[in-house]
Design goal:
By secondary structure, this protein is mainly alpha-helical. It contains two helices and no strands. Helix 1 packs antiparallel against helix 2. This is ATP synthase F0 subunit 8.
Length: 51
């Protein structure tokens, strides 16, 4: 089955990419939270709207 392997690799790549993006988002929001509380509130609101 030649079509099985590419699909599996694509799924693995997408999952890894999503996890990396999620980790970067968490690091970014943590950085923003340390800078100022007003930015924290804005970032939290934007985060809720996106999800």
């Amino acid at each position: 089955m030649p079509q099985m392997a590419p699909l599996w690799w694509e799924l693995l790549f997408i999952t890894t990419l999503m996890m990396h993006t999620f980790t970067m988002m968490i690091m970014y929001f943590n950085k923003e939270n340390k800078m100022s509380s007003s930015k924290k509130n804005m970032s939290t609101t934007e985060k809720n709207l996106k999800w």
